[in-house]
Specification:
alpha/beta; two-stranded antiparallel ribbon
Length: 366
């Protein structure tokens, strides 16, 4: 046997040994941990059915210990049907595609309704560089944690006199404190080093001032985590010029929407960023940035929607359900497909269909 043959053989032996070493770690589940879990599934509008079907296929290929209860919900409905809310309350976990939100016309967003009805007070979007996906900035790994139930999204608007509308921004100490606690707990449990509070307290001294005061009080209980503050307009500038300075960001409702979408654009686009909305009892996982964005009609017709964001969101869901090995397998497979660069949808510079990406992910599952 030649030198090259011996080298190849030794490399394969090392890989096999490393695989065995990884397997030697013992995980002790609680009795019943492996029982299949029910998950409410809302395909939604636009590209929603395409990308949720992608998740269904991958879960089936992995033999993931869950099953879906599927419901038709659309953005032009007046309310989320009660049977859907009952399903989420029973299962405690939901996966959803985007729901179209009509602009104007007095029809409220079902995405916002769902968060309020289930008290999903924390929105979490993870924006990070994916190997193989070229971006202007490297070393981006930002978690945006957004208060999800009040602020400008309270929906308290009325016409005072014809041509004059008053819109109320509601901020409470209770909601500000609990989102701050969630952000610091997340940082502590995930070995994050810094939490940045985003605000506009220089102008909205009472509302954003209350939010800042709450963040400062909570920060004193986590001395191992660095805390700083930034005004939202300066934050946007810093994000596009030096995003690697941010770690965990905690924000009121409206700012979080803007900051999360900006961070997602910097790290590779809304089509690849995972996210979820969580409360004390329930969690809804969806595309992280522009979750209400249902895509363009052409994407739906050509079946070329990017499923990566929802696949990564479903990996977050698996981790939430305490199935970490399935989450790891899915994330690894998705990252391999992106790294290889052969099957990419149009938003990532390729021309692949949703199904081609799904097939590639399934082929890369260990």
């Amino acid at each position: 046997m030649g030198v090259r043959g011996k080298v190849r053989m030794s490399v394969s032996v090392m890989k096999a040994a490393m695989k065995e070493m990884r397997r030697s770690v013992t995980y002790m589940p609680r009795p019943g941990d492996g029982a299949p879990r029910g998950v409410t599934l809302i395909p939604g509008d636009g590209i929603g059915p395409l990308v949720t079907n992608a998740v269904e296929q991958v879960m089936e290929a992995m033999h993931a210990p869950l099953y879906f209860e599927k419901y038709e919900v659309h953005g032009d409905m007046r309310r989320v049907p009660e049977e859907v809310l009952d399903s989420i309350r029973k299962n405690k976990v939901c996966l959803k595609g985007g729901l179209r939100t009509p602009v104007g016309g007095g029809v409220s967003s079902l995405n916002v309704q769902l968060r309020k009805d289930l008290d999903l007070y924390a929105s979490l979007v993870n924006c990070f560089n994916l190997p193989g996906l070229p971006t202007r900035h490297d070393n981006v790994d930002i978690v945006v944690i957004r208060e999800n139930t009040e602020g400008e999204y309270s929906g308290l608007e009325h016409e005072v006199v014809p041509g004059v509308v008053e819109s109320l921004k509601v901020m409470s100490k209770f909601c500000s404190e609990r989102i701050a606690k969630y952000a610091f707990e997340y940082a502590y449990l995930n070995n994050r080093k810094k939490v940045t509070a985003v605000h506009k307290a220089n102008i909205m001294k009472l509302a954003d001032g209350l939010f800042l005061e709450s963040c400062r009080q909570v920060a004193t209980k986590y001395p191992g985590i660095k805390y700083n503050e930034i005004i939202v307009d300066n934050c946007c500038m810093q994000l596009v010029s030096k995003p690697e300075q941010f770690d965990v960001m905690v924000t009121p409702n409206l700012y979080g929407n803007l900051v999360a979408n900006t961070a997602a654009g910097i790290a590779g686009g809304t089509g690849v960023m995972p996210g979820g909305n969580v409360g004390a009892d329930h969690a809804v996982f969806e595309q992280g940035a522009s979750a209400g964005n249902v895509g363009k009609e052409k994407q739906v017709e050509q079946k070329k929607a990017n499923p990566v964001a929802l696949l990564l969101s479903s990996a977050m869901m698996l981790r939430h359900l305490q199935f970490p090995s399935f989450a790891d397998r899915l994330e690894t497979a998705v990252k391999r497909v992106i790294s290889e660069g052969k099957y990419m949808t149009k938003d990532l510079g390729g021309d692949s269909t949703t199904q081609q990406v799904v097939d590639a992910v399934i082929a890369n599952l260990d």
